[in-house]
Every structure is written in C-alpha cells, then in structure tokens.
C-alpha cells in the first residue's frame, strides 16, 4: 500500500526469464506472480492480495 500510505514501493518486472522472476522465487519460494511483499508479509494469491490491500487502506484511513 505504498501509494496510499506514502511509503516507498518497487514494481518489479517478473515475466518468465527475467531477473525479477528469479527474485520472486528467491523471496517467496514459488515461481508464481502476482507476488506481494510488505515488510514481513509475503503472498501470491490475487484475492488475498486484494483483501490485504483493502485492510491496509482501512487501517491507514483510521489513523488520519
């Protein structure tokens, strides 16, 4: 949620055969995208990523 909270974020090209895909495997252990890393949270499943993003957005808005 870097865009919402104003934190730094990095978008990595992770197509097959790229260094980004290698990084995904090294960080998470699976050769699968999408892949989200937020501090110590790592997840692959699109639905779970969306749920997590919504939760993080709600948490951020409550602190304002």
Automatic annotation (TrEMBL):
Domain GST N-terminal as annotated: residue spans: 6-53
InterPro entries for the chain: Glutathione_S-Trfase_N (IPR004045), Thioredoxin-like_sf (IPR036249)
Protein name stated in the entry: Glutathione S-transferase, N-terminal domain protein
Annotated GO MF terms: transferase activity
